[in-house]
Amino acid sequence: MNEQIKHLLALPDAPRYNIKAVVQQTGVNISTLRAWEQRYGVPRPKRSDHGHRLYSQRDVAIIKWLKQCTEEGLAISQAVTLLQELDTLDPAAFQAAARPLPQPAAQPPGGSNWPEIRVQLIEALNSVNLRQAHLMVNHICTMFPIETVIFELFEPIMFDLGERWARGEISIAEEHMFSNFIRQRLLGLMQLHAPFAQGPRLLCACAPDEQHELGLLMFALLMEQRGWEVVYLGQSLEAEGSENFLKRLAPALVCITNSMVEHMAGMLELCRMIASLNNYRLQLVYSGSVFEKYPEFQARVPGIYLGIELRTAANRAEQLADLVAPDRWYNAVGMQPRM
Q1: Which of 72, 130, 223, 330 is the most exposed place for a label (fewest CB within 10 A)?
Q2: How far apart are CA 120 and CA 338, in angstroms?
Q3: pLDDT, tens digit, for every residue of 107-133?
Q4: CA distances to 33, 195, 262 from 108, in Å
Q5: CA distances from 254 to 31, 72, 97, 207, 216 (A)
Q6: What are the chain's domains?
Q7: DSSP assignment, residue 55?
Q8: The B12-binding domain covers which part of the protein (predicted)?
Q9: CA 237 to CA 285: how far, in whole Å?
Q10: pTM of whole model > 0.90?
């Protein structure tokens, strides 16, 4: 439960939703919300210029969690106590509260010496010491937020891997080993945090015949960390046979990526099919290096271009949450976003 609470507390705290939207998203009525606020100090909405309550994504997630706790038989006062105990802990106490994980034989340096941490992980992979590499990543993921691990560890290593491949310094087999190691770790982190997603539904997939998915995987994990419910489809999504699935899934956002000009015909067919489902309120976004090399393709895709820089793409996609109607957010009662 500690891990779940820490995830809730790490969600964005920017005021965004009025009380009506929060009631729609959580199923908790106004009188209960105000009673919890007055008696227990939770949630802690900010006020607009006109004095109206404004709730953050963190507030909404906490309200849903409190509701779940009470439905499972935990007294609201006990649930609030658990929340407040972890909310006041410092980072060292967070580590002490978390379940201990196996430690690598050679500890990565403390602080934020990321270049040295990356060197140690690359050396472990170069020597095919996968046990050591996994133990290092396990340890790092207990020390740092997942977003930090993505930006400071996985993304730079993938860039370095691409540079070494371009220079002919590594074989196909070595490239596959590095890539699949990172792919396994990213998918594992997504599975670990998926139960805590409370936001709009996001579908992520590669264009038809597109096999380069690690950038998309990192983007999907970032969005999951920011509260989005991610449905990850991975490589080569074909337009044929996908329309009915998309209608049934009803995501608020669909992200398609492509890195190669050879795949543009299939991507355009897929994106046009997605755009035709506007009655289902699907917003198409897209990314990929091909749109930087051939910017004229951007005008042919009926969606919003996120760019190719990972942090910028995640921030642009996150801003679209403001345009998502409250009834498209995760519905804890029906377990599905409503169309």
Answers
A1: 72
A2: 47
A3: 444 445 899 999 999 999 999 999 999
A4: 45, 29, 42
A5: 36, 34, 37, 12, 12
A6: 2-97 (1.10.1660.10), 114-191 (1.10.1240.10), 197-328 (3.40.50.280)
A7: B
A8: 199-331
A9: 15
A10: no
